[in-house]
Amino acid sequence: MSLHRSERLRIDLDPETSGRVTQEPEAEPTAQSASSRELIRTARLPIHFFISAVALFGLGVAAVPWVIGDLMEFFYHPRILATTHTFTLGWISSAIMGVMYRLVPAMTKRPLRFPRLARWQFGLYIFSATGLMTHMLIGVWPPTWMAAAVIVLSVVFFAMNMLYCLGPAWHRSAPETGMCMSIVFLLLAATLGFLLAFDKSRGFLPGNVITNLASHAHLAALGWVSLTICSISYRMAPAFLLSELTLPRLAVWQLYGLAVGVAGLAMSLLGWIPGVSVWSVVIMLALLIYVGVLSTLVRNRRTPIDWTMRHAMAGMVSLLLAVGLGFSLLWIDPDSALGNRIAGAYGVLGLLGWVTNLIVGMSFKLFPGIVVGVRERRGWSTLPITGFSLLRWRPFVFVSLNIGVLTLAAGLITAQAAIAQPGALILALGGLVYAAVMGRTLSYAYRASAPQSAADSLRLLPDDSQDGNNVAS
Question: Where would you find the membrane-spanning parts of this chain (predicted)?
C-alpha cells in the first residue's frame, strides 16, 4: 500500500490518549514564512541532541578498551573521569535532554517559552561538555572548571524552558512530578561538579575527595538520570506496551522516595547529615518498586515482545545487579582494591547496562518518528518509519551490548583483565554499530533524500521483527 503525501501516522503524546495511533491530513506545502522556519528549527532541536549523543556514545565505547587497565587500578584517574563524562554528559544527558525537548511540550500542551534560548543551550552544552571531557583527559583543571561553569549556565537555560512547561503540571501525574524533581537534581549535580573541578585548583572544599565525588556522582546518576528515566518510562511504557493497566499511584510515591533517598545520600556523603546506609536502603527500595511497576505493565501488555522491550528487560536485570553492587559498598571500603573494582562494575552496570539499554530501546521507536516529523515540516518526502531504520542490526546490537556489559563487569569484579578486555571490545563493537545505524537514521532529518528501500511500500510491521508500535511521532 503506497503512502499518500496528504496523510501521515503519528503517536499521540497527550496523556489522556497515550499511544493512540491517528491519521490526520498534512498541510499542503507553502513558502516558508519566518514562523514556519522557527517551527522547523524547534522541531529539529531534539535531533541535534540525539545526533550529538549518538556520536559521543560511539566515542565513549571506542575508548573503553583503552582504559581497562586504569579502571582496574583505580577509578579516580583522568582517563576514567573523561570516559565516564563522555557517557554521562555526552551520551546520556544529551539523549535525555533531546527526549524532554520533544516530550515535555507535547505532554503538557505548553510550547517552549524560550525557543531561541533552547538552541543556544544546545550549543553551549555540547561545546562545554566536550571541552570538559578533553581537559579532564589531559588533566588540566582551570579549563575544566571553566567548562563546568558553562555547563551550569546551559543547565539553567534548559531548566527555564522545562520548568515553564512542567511547573503548572508538576503534581498532575508521575511523569511531570518526576521530571520536575530531576531538573532540580541536574542543577545541583552540575553545580557540585563545577565546585569539585574548581576545588582542584583552589582546594577549598572540606571533607574527603572520594565522598565528595560520590555525592556528585549520585546526584547526577540517581537524582538526574535515574529519576528522569523512571519518569519517562512511566510516560512511554503504557504507550509502547498498550498495557491493560493504568499506571498505579504507587509510581508517584516511588519517584518521591527515590528523590528523598538521593537527597539524603548526597548530604550524608558530604558530611552534612548522618545515615548513609539508611538513605541507601531508601534508594534501593525505590528502584525495586520501579522494577515491580514496570514488570506489572509488561505482564499485562497487549503488544508482542520486540527489541525495545528486550532492551528494557535487559536493563532491568542490569539495574538489579547494580543495586546489589551499590549496596555492597556500604560494607566494602571503596578505597580498597576490591571496593575500587566493585565501584567500577557498579558504574558499568548502571550507566551502560541499565540506562543505555533503556535509551537504545526507546530510540528504536522514538528517533525515527521524530525524523519523519521533521521531514514533514520541511516538506520533504514522507516515507514509512521502517524505511529509516536498519532493523536487521537490532539483534546484533542487543546481544553485543549486553554480553559486553556483563563480561566487562565480571572481569572488573574478579580483577581478570583477560575477561574484562574482551567484554570491552564486544561492547565497543556493538556500540559502534548502533552509533552508525542510528546516525544514518537521524541524518535523514538534515537531507531531503530518503532510503530507496522505503519508497516501495508502507510497512508498519517489519518482516523480521514485531515492532508493531513503530509509528511516527
Answer: 47-68, 80-101, 122-141, 147-166, 178-197, 217-234, 255-273, 279-300, 312-332, 352-374, 395-413, 419-437
